[in-house]
Amino acid sequence: MTYIAKPKFHHPALPKNDLGYTHRDYEGTISTLCAGCGHDSITASIIEACFELSIEPHRVAKISGIGCSSKTPTYFLGNSHGFNSVHGRMPSVLTGANLANRDLIYLGVSGDGDSASIGFGQFAHVMRRGVNMTYIVENNGVYGLTKGQFSATADRGSKSKRGVINTDNSIDLAAMALQLGATFVARSFSGDKKQLVPIIKAAIEHQGAAFLDVISPCVAFNNHAGSTKSFDYVREHNEAVNRLDVISARAPIAVDYPEGTVQIVEQHDGSKLALRKLGADYEIHDRYAAMNFLQKHASEGQIVTGVLYIADEPQDLHTSLKTVQMPLNALGEKELCPGSAALDRINAGLR
Amino acid sequence: MPGGTISSVNDFVIRFANVNGSGSASANEMFARAVMRMGVPVSPRNIFPSNIQGLPTWYEVRVTEAGHLGARGGVDFMVAMNPQTFDKDIAGIEPGGYLLYDSTKPLPQSKFRDDINVIGVPLTAICNKEYTDPRQRQLFKNIIYLGVLSALLDMDAKVIETLIGEQYKGKDKLIGPNVHALHLGRDWALENLKCPIGLRVRASDKVGDRIFIEGNSAAALGAVYGGATVCAWYPITPSSSLADAFTRYCAKLRVDKDTGEAKYAIIQAEDELASIGMVIGASWNGARAFTATSGPGISLMQEFCGLAYFAEVPAVIFDVQRGGPSTGMPTRTQQSDLLICAYASHGDTKHILLFPEDPHEAFEFGALSFDLADRLQTPIFVMLDLDIGMNHRLCAPLTWDDTRQYDRGKVMTYEELEAGTDFGRYLDVHGDGIPYRTYPGTHPTRGSFFTRGSTRDRYARYTEEGGPYVDNVMRLLRKFESAKDIVPRPLIANAEQQTKYGVIYYGSTSPAMDEAIELIEAKGHRLDRMRIRSFPFHSSVNSFVADHDFVYVVEQNRDGQLRSLIVNECGIDPVRLVPILHFDGTPITARFIAKAIGDHLDQLKVKRKQAAS
């Protein structure tokens, strides 16, 4: 049996959020990933973010593709509906689900193989359509389930566990998301929960296509000298552009950060991002500057983390399509079927 | 003339040979509509190679008082407007038939045949005299030959004038010039030609209340009436017009007049994989969703089809079949996707197929497919083809029962979950193999489940153990059995006299078969008929075959795909099923069917006589 439920028992004094839920209400089954996997840290951050945002777990739809990362939705939000689709095709399934019911929160979970190789096309198109979702790539640069082949995000010149040097250029998914029109783009590191949790919260609050690339070292196949996705390498080369917290419109959270330059960024749904700028001239609303910034630092061997870009006026797919506010899956015969009288008129026009 | 000239009232085939992009389509279609408005049934067909502009295209209209809507074969009257195909077009005319050509530049006698009637009309000269604009010269040339035809065939000009008025309603400036062009041609013909010729259109009352619509449009309308709210598609001939029609009808029928908001979502996806992925995502989330595609698209959708089958997610796929394999003949018709649809995806899969015979059934099955998909929680393939999809057909008016309610299938509600009803996503509660599902977001603590393509137990918990896997796939088989009682049953028509022979056919073959039966009976043979309307097959397919010595299976593919399905699924000895196959990309004709079956029956008779002597 490869499904391990967590014991029901929990401490009665666990902290509760505004809805009365504890962390346990945001957990799933026990992870079957390797001990120390960066993906488990991301799972923990998603749980923390959803807890802090007081999201109703069952109002989340969590959708993934295939791979280690795509297994993780089983490990969080056990009361949500999950969909582990096919390799690289999470974006289309999520798009369809979103069209059917605009009222749910959509978490798309993918990996670097899933999104940058087989699913690169769907990744691109879900971004350009502006589907309202949080798209998280758990990026470890290798194929873990098939024993450590390079993925398309592996840096040129990096070394595999078997000693093979990658001779292909890598794909920077955050840079691609900026290019493709995502209205929220961020990068983080699975080992930096302090940065990751607020970014996930901000992404969930964002009303549009939010993309989050999380470097998540693979302890089994990509955490060695020569890898540019190892814990040590990422810690040494991390360049954070901002530290942040989310001030939710419905449940304000006090900002508790060291003094510095703080910028409040209002999101489309009314929530506010409090960003502490590290780079003096980093502009959060400038898509093109973000692209330049990423490329410049990448060429210097630095991994830029933080919220890279937020659109001033994000739009989502439903806005573009002018769909009704009521979820399409809630419409019945009365709203959908034009009836026999209309059909008689159509018949009359076809003679 | 050797062999005489063809004379016929309300029973002939006229073909227009044009250059693609010359604006002839509306004039040619107007001809077909005019005949229909005169009460005479027509069966028009577009015949077009896969090209964009400047290459040949044909439009054929079968004028048929008897109401035979299948392709007949042969051409009685050729309007040869394409120099590129001129020789070939002339060669295709039946002896005694007619040729209308542009005689502005005289052609040598060697370009014509002695056994046909040649009608030269200086179309270019008439146009050049009347119009200076090059585009007008081209467009009005088409209306002018329509005017000539109206005189030659003794058609009522008023009918065409009315049609012109309807066509350009809202662009009223165009009505007058078009009517003028019509009369330019008509008057020229009446003054210079012997009108009418042997072929004539005489007003009749054989059209009745039937409507004139393409299968793709009717199927799209079925999707509207069936409650589809999400359409995700990728352009591919010959299915694109289905998505176009859905877009058109939704814009008209599904936009809230007060708010301007749409009660639908249509996405032109990046490819077929994404389109079926979106359909599956939407259906999983409780919306009614569909895609429209053709054979190459079905090939690309295989993996998702398997997922939807195994994970039990509803989906509707309109497959407008064309000539395969590979790119094959993109603009020609076939029925060659049966096997790939019936068993789409790797592993043991079986899917529901529906076979509409005409636009009327395309509408009915289009709407029904959403009920079936929800009821059975599985993909439903509506098997159209180019011949139905992209051609106008006369068919019975579309009907809708206003008391009809959508069958959303087994969906467990908040109230049921709250009451503590046991929810196991893959529990077979009623023994019909169909489990309950829940829509995402239904209940805070009950009813959620994880959808995946890998094995799970009855409560949707991931497992790789053999027992739950076998339990699951055997339940899927039970569900497939249950489907037999709710999908459209075959229709049987017995011959007037008892016979040992039967014929099975499906889909767009239907009108040709109706006519072929008359031809076969005229030769003294009798056949019982069964029209298959869905897969899985009803038990009556077994009994129909058992009741006859031989059953002919008529279809439009090389390998006898329906026959293979029957053999495979019904366990029938293949020797008892005689394949009658037509697969050159043109629609099957009554002549072809009657000859193939008639020859076989004749041979049987001879063999039996020999055996008896």
TrEMBL record, chain A:
It comes from the Bacteria. It holds the Pfam family TPP_enzyme_C. GO terms for biological process: cellular respiration; small molecule metabolic process. Keywords: Oxidoreductase. One of its GO terms (molecular function) is thiamine pyrophosphate binding. This is 2-oxoglutarate ferredoxin oxidoreductase subunit beta.
Automatic annotation (TrEMBL), chain B:
It comes from the Bacteria. It holds the Pfam family POR_N. GO terms for molecular function: oxidoreductase activity, acting on the aldehyde or oxo group of donors. InterPro entries: 2-oxoacid/accept_OxRdtase_asu, Pyruvate:ferred/Flavod_OxRd, Pyrv/ketoisovalerate_OxRed_cat, Pyrv_Fd/Flavodoxin_OxRdtase_N, Pyrv_flavodox_OxRed_cen, THDP-binding, Transketo_C/PFOR_II. This is Ferredoxin oxidoreductase. It comes from Pseudorhodoplanes sinuspersici. Gene3D superfamilies: 3.40.50.920, 3.40.50.970, Pyruvate-ferredoxin oxidoreductase, PFOR, domain III. GO terms for biological process: response to oxidative stress.
